Amino acid sequence: MIDIHPALQLDPNIERQNESYHHWAIKSVIVKQLRSEPGNAGTIETEKKTSDLIGDIRGHLSECPESVPRRFVVEIETTASSKDRLRATIQHLRFGYAVYWVFTADAFALRQETETLLDEYLMSTPSLGIASLPDGEVSLGTPITWDEFSLPTPVLGRHELYIPTYNRYESLFDHGDFTIEDQRVTIYSQPTTDRLYLSRHLEDGQQTIPTRTPWRPTDFYKRIETGEIQRVSPIRGPP
To answer: Which CATH architecture best describes the domain 21-148?
Structure first.
Protein backbone atom coordinates (compact mmCIF):
# COMPACT_ATOMS: atom_id res chain seq x y z
CA MET A 1 0.00 0.00 0.00
CA ILE A 2 0.97 3.62 -0.42
CA ASP A 3 -0.20 6.67 1.50
CA ILE A 4 -2.59 8.92 -0.43
CA HIS A 5 -2.93 12.58 0.50
CA PRO A 6 -6.48 13.41 1.69
CA ALA A 7 -6.77 16.10 -1.01
CA LEU A 8 -6.74 13.35 -3.67
CA GLN A 9 -9.76 11.21 -4.46
CA LEU A 10 -9.89 7.77 -6.07
CA ASP A 11 -12.52 6.88 -8.65
CA PRO A 12 -14.25 3.81 -7.13
CA ASN A 13 -15.39 2.60 -10.57
CA ILE A 14 -11.87 1.97 -11.90
CA GLU A 15 -11.06 -1.74 -11.78
CA ARG A 16 -7.53 -2.77 -10.93
CA GLN A 17 -5.98 -4.69 -13.83
CA ASN A 18 -2.66 -6.56 -13.90
CA GLU A 19 -0.82 -3.63 -12.31
CA SER A 20 0.64 -2.49 -9.03
CA TYR A 21 -1.56 -0.74 -6.48
CA HIS A 22 0.57 2.38 -6.93
CA HIS A 23 -0.02 2.46 -10.70
CA TRP A 24 -3.74 1.77 -10.28
CA ALA A 25 -4.12 4.48 -7.63
CA ILE A 26 -2.51 7.14 -9.84
CA LYS A 27 -4.75 6.10 -12.75
CA SER A 28 -7.82 6.24 -10.50
CA VAL A 29 -6.92 9.72 -9.20
CA ILE A 30 -6.35 11.09 -12.71
CA VAL A 31 -9.65 9.66 -13.99
CA LYS A 32 -11.45 11.20 -11.01
CA GLN A 33 -9.85 14.58 -11.73
CA LEU A 34 -10.68 14.46 -15.44
CA ARG A 35 -14.29 13.40 -14.86
CA SER A 36 -14.73 16.05 -12.16
CA GLU A 37 -13.38 18.91 -14.27
CA PRO A 38 -16.48 21.08 -14.98
CA GLY A 39 -15.18 22.13 -18.40
CA ASN A 40 -14.90 18.54 -19.65
CA ALA A 41 -17.77 16.74 -21.40
CA GLY A 42 -17.27 13.36 -23.02
CA THR A 43 -15.94 9.91 -22.16
CA ILE A 44 -12.91 9.05 -20.03
CA GLU A 45 -12.02 5.34 -20.25
CA THR A 46 -9.20 3.09 -19.09
CA GLU A 47 -7.25 0.25 -20.72
CA LYS A 48 -8.33 1.01 -24.30
CA LYS A 49 -6.42 0.04 -27.42
CA THR A 50 -4.72 2.35 -29.88
CA SER A 51 -3.75 -0.05 -32.65
CA ASP A 52 -1.84 -2.77 -30.74
CA LEU A 53 -1.09 -0.61 -27.68
CA ILE A 54 -3.22 -0.43 -24.55
CA GLY A 55 -3.24 3.06 -23.06
CA ASP A 56 -3.82 3.61 -19.34
CA ILE A 57 -6.43 6.35 -19.86
CA ARG A 58 -8.16 7.58 -23.01
CA GLY A 59 -10.33 10.65 -23.43
CA HIS A 60 -12.84 11.54 -26.15
CA LEU A 61 -14.20 14.98 -25.25
CA SER A 62 -16.94 16.94 -27.00
CA GLU A 63 -16.23 19.97 -24.80
CA CYS A 64 -13.07 20.91 -22.92
CA PRO A 65 -10.87 23.90 -22.01
CA GLU A 66 -8.77 25.23 -24.89
CA SER A 67 -5.59 23.83 -23.31
CA VAL A 68 -6.96 20.26 -23.29
CA PRO A 69 -7.00 18.14 -26.48
CA ARG A 70 -10.36 16.63 -27.42
CA ARG A 71 -8.72 13.24 -28.01
CA PHE A 72 -5.90 12.17 -25.73
CA VAL A 73 -4.18 9.28 -24.00
CA VAL A 74 -2.52 9.32 -20.57
CA GLU A 75 0.37 6.90 -20.02
CA ILE A 76 1.53 6.36 -16.42
CA GLU A 77 5.11 5.26 -15.87
CA THR A 78 6.80 3.89 -12.73
CA THR A 79 10.39 2.80 -12.08
CA ALA A 80 9.34 -0.69 -13.21
CA SER A 81 8.11 0.51 -16.64
CA SER A 82 9.90 -0.75 -19.74
CA LYS A 83 7.67 0.66 -22.50
CA ASP A 84 9.22 2.04 -25.69
CA ARG A 85 8.00 5.58 -25.08
CA LEU A 86 9.01 7.01 -28.47
CA ARG A 87 7.19 4.24 -30.34
CA ALA A 88 4.14 4.56 -28.09
CA THR A 89 4.05 8.34 -28.60
CA ILE A 90 4.19 7.94 -32.39
CA GLN A 91 1.50 5.26 -32.39
CA HIS A 92 -0.94 7.34 -30.34
CA LEU A 93 -0.26 10.47 -32.42
CA ARG A 94 -0.76 8.57 -35.69
CA PHE A 95 -4.23 7.56 -34.53
CA GLY A 96 -5.16 11.11 -33.60
CA TYR A 97 -4.51 11.07 -29.85
CA ALA A 98 -2.42 13.66 -28.02
CA VAL A 99 -0.22 12.04 -25.36
CA TYR A 100 0.32 12.88 -21.70
CA TRP A 101 3.21 11.08 -20.01
CA VAL A 102 2.97 10.96 -16.19
CA PHE A 103 5.83 9.61 -14.04
CA THR A 104 5.92 8.67 -10.40
CA ALA A 105 8.10 10.93 -8.26
CA ASP A 106 10.70 8.18 -7.74
CA ALA A 107 10.97 7.76 -11.55
CA PHE A 108 12.46 11.26 -11.90
CA ALA A 109 15.48 10.01 -13.88
CA LEU A 110 13.18 8.15 -16.28
CA ARG A 111 11.10 11.30 -16.71
CA GLN A 112 14.21 13.35 -17.57
CA GLU A 113 15.39 10.67 -19.99
CA THR A 114 12.01 10.71 -21.75
CA GLU A 115 11.95 14.51 -21.99
CA THR A 116 15.40 14.41 -23.60
CA LEU A 117 14.31 11.61 -25.96
CA LEU A 118 11.16 13.42 -27.12
CA ASP A 119 12.81 16.85 -27.28
CA GLU A 120 14.54 15.79 -30.52
CA TYR A 121 11.15 15.58 -32.26
CA LEU A 122 9.36 18.57 -30.69
CA MET A 123 9.38 22.30 -31.36
CA SER A 124 9.90 23.00 -27.63
CA THR A 125 11.21 20.97 -24.71
CA PRO A 126 8.35 18.92 -23.25
CA SER A 127 7.23 19.24 -19.64
CA LEU A 128 5.98 15.81 -18.66
CA GLY A 129 3.67 14.99 -15.78
CA ILE A 130 4.52 13.83 -12.28
CA ALA A 131 2.59 12.00 -9.57
CA SER A 132 3.35 11.87 -5.86
CA LEU A 133 0.31 10.54 -4.04
CA PRO A 134 1.61 11.08 -0.47
CA ASP A 135 2.31 14.74 -1.29
CA GLY A 136 -1.00 15.30 -3.06
CA GLU A 137 0.72 16.15 -6.34
CA VAL A 138 -0.67 14.78 -9.62
CA SER A 139 0.11 16.82 -12.74
CA LEU A 140 -0.47 15.73 -16.34
CA GLY A 141 2.15 18.12 -17.69
CA THR A 142 1.77 19.40 -21.24
CA PRO A 143 0.30 17.17 -23.97
CA ILE A 144 2.39 16.06 -26.92
CA THR A 145 0.36 16.85 -30.02
CA TRP A 146 0.52 15.96 -33.72
CA ASP A 147 1.13 19.54 -34.86
CA GLU A 148 4.19 19.97 -32.62
CA PHE A 149 5.79 16.58 -33.29
CA SER A 150 8.16 15.90 -36.20
CA LEU A 151 7.77 12.26 -37.16
CA PRO A 152 10.92 10.30 -38.04
CA THR A 153 11.30 9.66 -41.78
CA PRO A 154 10.28 7.20 -43.06
CA VAL A 155 7.42 6.81 -40.60
CA LEU A 156 7.15 3.15 -39.66
CA GLY A 157 7.36 2.18 -43.35
CA ARG A 158 5.32 -0.97 -43.86
CA HIS A 159 3.02 -0.18 -40.94
CA GLU A 160 1.44 2.84 -42.65
CA LEU A 161 -1.46 0.81 -44.07
CA TYR A 162 -1.85 -1.37 -40.97
CA ILE A 163 -5.47 -1.71 -39.86
CA PRO A 164 -6.09 -2.64 -36.19
CA THR A 165 -7.84 -5.95 -35.63
CA TYR A 166 -10.86 -4.17 -34.14
CA ASN A 167 -11.41 -2.31 -37.46
CA ARG A 168 -10.84 -5.14 -39.95
CA TYR A 169 -14.51 -5.75 -40.68
CA GLU A 170 -15.26 -2.14 -41.60
CA SER A 171 -16.29 -1.41 -45.19
CA LEU A 172 -13.80 1.48 -45.51
CA PHE A 173 -10.77 2.71 -43.54
CA ASP A 174 -9.37 6.26 -43.74
CA HIS A 175 -5.58 6.16 -43.48
CA GLY A 176 -5.32 9.95 -43.28
CA ASP A 177 -3.67 12.57 -45.48
CA PHE A 178 -0.38 12.33 -47.37
CA THR A 179 1.57 14.49 -49.80
CA ILE A 180 2.49 13.08 -53.20
CA GLU A 181 4.46 15.43 -55.46
CA ASP A 182 3.27 18.41 -53.35
CA GLN A 183 -0.37 17.32 -53.77
CA ARG A 184 -2.34 16.60 -50.58
CA VAL A 185 -4.42 13.44 -50.83
CA THR A 186 -6.43 11.19 -48.52
CA ILE A 187 -5.88 7.46 -48.87
CA TYR A 188 -8.58 4.90 -48.09
CA SER A 189 -8.62 1.12 -48.23
CA GLN A 190 -11.13 -1.69 -47.98
CA PRO A 191 -9.95 -3.80 -45.02
CA THR A 192 -11.00 -7.10 -46.61
CA THR A 193 -9.13 -6.42 -49.88
CA ASP A 194 -5.86 -4.91 -51.15
CA ARG A 195 -7.72 -2.08 -52.90
CA LEU A 196 -6.55 1.49 -52.27
CA TYR A 197 -8.58 4.61 -53.02
CA LEU A 198 -7.34 8.18 -53.32
CA SER A 199 -9.13 11.50 -52.87
CA ARG A 200 -7.36 14.72 -53.89
CA HIS A 201 -7.64 17.95 -51.92
CA LEU A 202 -8.58 20.99 -54.00
CA GLU A 203 -7.58 24.62 -53.45
CA ASP A 204 -11.14 25.57 -52.43
CA GLY A 205 -11.01 23.11 -49.52
CA GLN A 206 -13.12 20.45 -51.24
CA GLN A 207 -12.04 16.90 -52.01
CA THR A 208 -12.56 14.76 -55.09
CA ILE A 209 -14.61 11.58 -54.89
CA PRO A 210 -12.29 8.69 -53.91
CA THR A 211 -11.17 6.67 -56.92
CA ARG A 212 -9.32 3.38 -56.98
CA THR A 213 -5.58 3.67 -57.55
CA PRO A 214 -3.50 1.21 -59.56
CA TRP A 215 -1.12 0.91 -56.59
CA ARG A 216 -0.87 -2.19 -54.53
CA PRO A 217 0.19 -1.83 -50.88
CA THR A 218 3.75 -2.86 -51.83
CA ASP A 219 3.96 0.09 -54.27
CA PHE A 220 2.75 2.44 -51.54
CA TYR A 221 5.32 1.12 -49.04
CA LYS A 222 8.17 1.66 -51.51
CA ARG A 223 7.15 5.28 -52.00
CA ILE A 224 6.89 5.79 -48.23
CA GLU A 225 10.38 4.35 -47.70
CA THR A 226 11.92 6.55 -50.40
CA GLY A 227 10.20 9.67 -49.09
CA GLU A 228 8.06 10.16 -52.23
CA ILE A 229 4.97 9.92 -50.02
CA GLN A 230 4.83 11.59 -46.61
CA ARG A 231 2.13 11.51 -43.95
CA VAL A 232 0.70 14.93 -43.01
CA SER A 233 -2.27 14.00 -40.78
CA PRO A 234 -3.24 11.35 -38.25
CA ILE A 235 -5.14 8.20 -39.18
CA ARG A 236 -8.91 8.71 -39.02
CA GLY A 237 -10.10 5.12 -39.22
CA PRO A 238 -13.65 4.19 -40.25
CA PRO A 239 -15.65 7.14 -41.69
So the answer is: 3-Layer(aba) Sandwich (3.40)
